[in-house]
Amino acid sequence: MAKNKKILIVDDEPDILEILEYNLTESGYKVAKAEDGLEALSQAKSFQPDLILLDIMLPGMDGVEVCAKIREDPELDNCLVAFLTARGEDFTEIASLEVGGDDFIQKPIKPKVLLSRIKALLRRSKRSEEDDNEILEYKNIKLDQNQFLVFVGGKKVDLPKKEFYILKLLMSNPGRVYRRAEIFNKIWGDNVIVGNRTIDVHIRKLRERIGEKRIKTVKGVGYKVD
Q1: C-alpha to C-alpha distance for 114 and 23, rounded to whole angstroms
Q2: Rounded to the nearest 5°, which phi and psi values hold at 181?
Q3: Is the pLDDT of residue 14 over 60?
Q4: What is the Cα–Cα distance from 163 to 181, expressed in whole angstroms?
Q5: What's the rounded Cα separation, in Å, for the pair 142 and 45?
Q6: Are strands 178-179 and 215-218 parallel, antiparallel or unpaired?
Q7: For the CA atoms of 108, 114, 118, 120, what is the dihedral angle to 10 degrees?
Q8: What is the pLDDT of residues 106-152, one digit of tens each?
Q9: Does the pLDDT at position 1 exceed 90?
């Protein structure tokens, strides 16, 4: 799994950078480092990482701003972003997810646990890419998995990666109710732990983009397209 995979670590604490670099290198990953937001963007462009471990509290440009700029860059479209933070407030997690973060990891975290989270992220990403080989259509929604495109009533709608995969999951079996735990498992992987508000945030943003009535909530159970 680690062979040829590249990880960019972004943190303003040299000790954390050193520890993470050592553990990731020992596990076979290629590693680059950055200590602030501007350096992170520069390194991301040149290093083209598969995953960025991104601290939220950075000098100058914070991690949320960095992630937003990464998501605007088509050259970094397939790059995963896992936020690292000592802060646990709901608004911090929600902001991180809304700009396209793939995971939210609270410090301190044991190296073995972090490596497990990284493997789960990369594995989930690989499975999603392997599955992207067909077009799904339901009523007036068309989802092109090869081109990573969504059209609603013939109009192109831009979706962040996680929202795209949630919509893909729901459209793969219209009318079926997907429970929250199942969505977590299929989109984030069973070894990734995310906050309780994660699904709410992504469903809300997805509804804003494709229309409020296209995704139904089954109270106390989950979600479906119908």
Answers
A1: 10
A2: -60, -35
A3: yes
A4: 16
A5: 32
A6: unpaired
A7: -110
A8: 888 888 889 988 988 887 665 555 555 578 998 899 999 888 899 99
A9: no
State both tokens at 38. Answer: 């501007």
Q: State the sign of the Cα–Cα–Cα–Cα dihedral 112, 115, 117, 123.
A: negative
| pLDDT at residue 87 tops 70 | no
**Mean pLDDT value of segment 202-222:** 88
Output the pLDDT for position 172: 87
Instruction: State the amino acid at position 193 in one-letter form.
Output: I
The candidate with the shortest Cα–Cα distance to 107, out of 54, 67, 66, 43, is: 54
Q: Which domains does the chain carry?
A: 6-129 (3.40.50.2300), 133-225 (1.10.10.10)
Q: Which residue has the tokens 């911090």?
A: 92
Tell me the residue type at 12. D
